[in-house]
Amino acid sequence: MTSYTFPNVFTDEYVSSYVFFGKLMGKALFENIQINCPLSQVIYKHLVEEKIELKDLNFLDSELYSSLTYMKENKLEDGIYASFEVEKEIDGKIAKFPLTMGGDQIMVSEENKEEYIEKRLKFETYEIMKGGLELLMQGFYSVIPKALIKNFTSEELEICLCGLPFIDLEDWQDFTEYRGEYSQKHQVIEWFWEILEGFTQEQLMNLLLFVTGSPRLPVEGFSALRTLRGDTARFTIEPTIYSQRNMYPMSHTCFNRLDLPIYPTKKEMKKAMKFVINSHVFG
After folding, report:
1. pLDDT tens for each residue of 177-217
2. Rg over CA atoms, the chain
3. What pTM was computed for the model?
4. Active-site residue among 37, 160, 162, 254?
5. Is 37 marked active-site?
6. 41 in Cβ contact with 154 (< 8 Å)
7. Three-state secondary structure along 66-86?
8. Cβ distance 210 to 251 under 8 Å?
9. What is the number of other CB atoms lying within 10 angstroms of the CB of residue 252?
């Protein structure tokens, strides 16, 4: 999944947007409403004041992470590797950032590589994103006092904000409600769960997104499923008549409800379900 950080150039629009987004994150956490918030793990670490390590750079730049890891674990032979200066393309132009005073004149060597790695890590995970990060934190802490999340880990904060990253199919079945003639023992419902057993996690998340408007679950799982308005609402399946005009499932994200036609065969149902989750068609 793509994860996001911040741009390096800011306008008044960026300032208000990131403060607002921080407040939105804080409100979602306060009201226990999961949101699609694919931020880099590094940002979550900053929010809970967790120490940034070299491995965290992999979330931002895998190639640079591999390069610095190699540098750390292997002896540098004589030769020019890099200086204590970083070049970044900003707004179409190359900008230079010294990692220390006179960094362009200091070459990385076996003797100073640990210092270089430490300074480069700080630059990539804080200094270059400082403007946006501090704006987001300003908005977030205006809703959620820092003291309230001081015992959170970055992983716990992400789960509380975004929901569980894994879908437990048994939990899904246990907390599903049925309408009309549907029940756990109805042939169409048995087909439904058999089809889901063959789905990947990505497909299950797409189906959850199709029905609820979110690809993730609350920390408590399906028992605490909510609507996008924050109302508690179990995943519900309601029967509809199958016909040429009604071949596909329909979703009602306001109620977490799936209108599932009474299919004549499992093959027809599987084909229709794959179509709607791959097409991202919402009801």
Report:
1. 999 999 999 999 999 999 999 999 999 999 999 998 888 88
2. 24
3. 0.72
4. 254
5. no
6. yes
7. HHHHHHHHCCCCCCCCCECEE
8. yes
9. 17
Question: Which of the four pLDDT bands, split at 50, 70 and 90, describes residue 164?
Answer: confident
Pairwise CA distance, residues 126 & 61, whole Å: 14
